[in-house]
């Protein structure tokens, strides 16, 4: 097939590692031609360009700033991107007939783009549902559920679900939520298509581990807990700070927080004021350096705001699992991530409403050998969250639906 993929992720090479790049490479391995459309944000000062590789073309469209900017600019840029994408597709991909159009949320504002492509190419459409907006913003009190902003985006969301031939959700809780809150959708087109990666073999010997810890001034023998990723409203950074406060200056545990986001300054203020000797706060690192850092740590951390009523399933868990690390997840009650972690025997869960519960978990495992749980994490990843497995899920659903259609027509 000729597959068109629309995303807000800035993709410049199909050979980069990431949940979308890994999946697209799996499509290429299975003889599909891939055409990507992704933004090149204004901050980079680049014009719209096409990057060509074997069986893959990447169209980087000049847009406004979307990531790591203020809400006003992010909102305006997100609203404009649909027109910018369609214009670029018409100009640079005009001679391509697409069989399948895939796209991920965020954003939900691709409706007109999808409608245009579906009409012009008679293409099938597949939504990779990776967040549920606008409800996630309502949960975090960013705007009212009764206001005009919510009504506008909720209508966009409904249209996107209707126009999608298939909807792949991150977990079963996402499937259940979507069906419950959107009864107008044909439930048969909704299924689990989780975040996935192409796992690589990671072996960190004792000497390399020690060298990395020395590089970042991390204690050599202490059990190290790492959080890597976005530091914004969804993570409830004040709660993260409270967890760190309850554990600060305890020599038998060490916490590394590496990332960026709108609420990074809250963590920075805490570290500057309290100067905890068992907490290291770092801004985002290049991918290769972050991989090196995570390889010297012992346990991965997940934080989600307790107010969420929508079931998030952060993809950062995959890097922990790839590195054979167990996970502590502090989340809301809506996500099934905690259930997956506990049932898979590769970590621990508590609700993100009381830092003492997190501290109790850390206390209980301070002297525990977590090797078996780490091995279980890697095994669970290889069984359930590989790009190869996800490609099979997508193709299976497309093939089965086409077969049903042919049977009806026959």
Task: Please give a structural write-up.
The protein is an alpha/beta fold and 410 residues long. It has 2 domains: 2-198 and 386-409, Glycogen Phosphorylase B (Rossmann fold); 206-384, Rossmann fold, CATH 3.40.50.2000. The chain is 43% helix and 20% strand. The protein has 15 helices and 14 strands. The strands form 2 sheets. The chain has an 8-stranded mixed sheet with strand order 3-4-2-1-5-6-7-8, sandwiched between helices. Strands 11-10-9-12-13-14 form a 6-stranded parallel sheet, with helices on both faces. The longest helix is centred in the last third of the chain and has 23 residues, at 387-409. It is globular. The two termini are 23 Å apart.
Strand-helix topology:
Elements: E1 2-6, H1 19-29, E2 33-41, E3 49-53, E4 56-63, H2 71-92, E5 100-104, H3 111-121, E6 124-129, H4 135-139, H5 148-163, E7 166-169, H6 172-181, E8 190-192, H7 206-215, E9 223-230, H8 237-247, E10 253-260, H9 264-274, E11 279-283, H10 287-294, E12 299-303, H11 317-322, E13 327-331, H12 337-343, E14 347-351, H13 355-365, H14 371-384, H15 387-409
Parallel strand pairs: 1-2, 1-5, 2-4, 5-6, 6-7, 7-8, 9-10, 9-12, 10-11, 12-13, 13-14
Antiparallel strand pairs: 3-4
Helix pairs in contact: 1-15, 2-3, 8-9, 8-13
């Amino acid at each position: 097939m000729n597959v068109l993929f629309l995303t807000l992720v800035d993709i410049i090479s199909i050979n980069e590692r990431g949940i979308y790049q890994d999946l697209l490479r799996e499509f290429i391995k299975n003889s599909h031609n891939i055409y990507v459309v992704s933004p090149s944000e204004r901050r980079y000062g680049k014009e719209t360009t096409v990057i060509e590789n074997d069986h893959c073309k990447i169209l980087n469209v000049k847009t406004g700033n979307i990531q790591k900017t203020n809400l006003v600019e992010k909102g305006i840029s997100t609203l404009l991107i649909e027109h910018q994408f369609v214009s670029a597709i018409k100009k640079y991909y005009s001679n391509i007939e697409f069989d399948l159009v895939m796209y991920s949320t965020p954003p939900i504002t691709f409706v007109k783009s999808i409608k245009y492509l579906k009409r012009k190419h008679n293409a099938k459409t597949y939504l990779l549902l990776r967040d549920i907006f606008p409800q996630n913003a309502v949960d975090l009190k960013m705007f009212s559920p009764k206001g005009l902003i919510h009504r506008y985006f909720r209508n966009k969301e409904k249209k996107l679900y209707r126009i999608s031939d298939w909807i792949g959700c991150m977990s079963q809780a996402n499937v259940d939520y979507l069906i419950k809150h959107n009864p107008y959708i044909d439930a048969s087109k909704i299924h689990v298509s989780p975040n996935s990666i192409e796992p690589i073999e990671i072996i960190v010997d004792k000497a390399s581990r020690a060298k990395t810890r020395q590089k970042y001034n991390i204690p050599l023998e202490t059990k190290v807990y790492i959080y890597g990723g976005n530091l914004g409203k969804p993570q409830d950074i004040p709660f993260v700070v409270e967890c760190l406060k309850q554990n600060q200056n305890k020599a038998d545990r060490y916490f590394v927080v590496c990332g960026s986001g709108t609420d990074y300054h809250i963590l920075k203020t805490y570290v500057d004021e309290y100067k905890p000797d068992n907490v290291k706060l770092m801004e985002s690192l290049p991918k290769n350096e972050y991989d090196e850092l995570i390889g010297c740590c012992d346990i991965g951390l997940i934080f989600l705001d307790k107010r969420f009523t929508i079931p998030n399933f952060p993809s950062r868990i995959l890097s922990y699992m790839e590195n054979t690390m167990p996970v502590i997840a502090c989340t809301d009650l809506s996500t099934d991530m905690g259930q997956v972690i506990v049932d898979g025997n590769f970590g621990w869960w508590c609700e993100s409403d009381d830092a003492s519960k997190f501290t109790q978990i850390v206390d209980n495992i301070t002297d525990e050998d977590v090797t078996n749980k780490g091995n279980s994490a890697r095994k669970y990843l290889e069984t359930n969250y590989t790009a190869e497995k996800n490609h099979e899920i997508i193709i299976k659903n497309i093939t089965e639906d086409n077969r049903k259609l042919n049977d009806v027509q026959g």
